[in-house]
Write a structure and sequence with these properties.
Bound molecules: dTDP-4-keto-6-deoxyglucose
Strand content: 35-45%
Structural class: alpha+beta
Shape: globular
Helix content: 10-25%
Oligomer: single chain
Number of strands: 13
Length: 187
């Protein structure tokens, strides 16, 4: 009788309390809050904040052996959102710049698979230039970070994982509109 009671009590303990949560389970628990208030959300444990608010650096995992390096970006370990789209910037002509916009809601993880570029970030107050030249280093951008990409080295391959499918209405493509949106949000 007693042992049956104990068994029943044990099975009433929520799943997450009985063992360590996996990175993906931790992500599921913490992410809804981050999504609701990205300007207040804590920095994920695996990310380092940059000077620009809502922008962070993430070290991807590398598995090295004699066949080469395998670089991993995994949900809850390096990737702070569910990726619904991937796109890449390739064959960028010398001297060309890209970006020049912010996103209202989109989150992104950017990294270069090959080559190098300058990512110029701006949160409306602080600007920061980050040289991306290492496939093991990624930049996580929460919403409302103005970005420009320039000084692409020849042959650069830049990959972006994005939290949403393409939606032009998510873009703020003028810096004035970006500043107005920041003011409206009170950020
Ligand atoms: C970003 C930087 C790093 C689509 O139709 N689907 C897509 O998924 C994307 C990303 C773009 N487009 C269209 C929209 C434009 O008509 O492709 C055209 C070129 O896009 P855009 O001028 O925005 O490209 P970039 O390189 O300036 O910016 C892109 C991303 O749009 C943006 O989210 O953060 O890369």
């Amino acid at each position: 009788m007693n042992s049956r009671l104990k068994l029943g009590a044990r099975s009433a303990v929520p799943l997450g309390m009985r063992r360590d949560l996996s990175p993906a389970e931790l992500f599921d628990r913490e992410y809804p809050a981050a999504r609701k208030a990205p300007h207040l959300a804590p920095v994920p444990s695996y990310a380092r904040p940059l000077d620009v608010r809502r922008a962070m650096e993430v070290d991807l995992s590398v598995i090295r052996d004699q066949r080469g390096d395998l670089v991993v970006a995994e949900l809850g370990k390096h990737l702070p959102f569910v990726a619904r789209r991937m796109y890449s910037l390739v064959r960028v002509p010398e001297g060309e710049a890209r970006g020049g916009h912010a996103h209202k809601e989109l989150e992104q993880l950017l990294f270069v698979l090959h080559g190098a570029l300058d990512l110029v970030l701006d949160d409306g107050v602080t600007q920061q230039r980050v040289r991306l030249d290492d496939p093991e280093k990624a930049i996580y951008l929460r919403p409302m970070v103005w970005r420009e990409l320039e000084h692409f080295a020849p042959g650069t391959v830049c990959v972006v994982l994005a939290s949403e499918v393409y939606d032009e209405s998510d873009y703020l493509r003028s810096y004035d509109a970006y500043r107005d949106e920041l003011a409206a949000l009170g950020w």
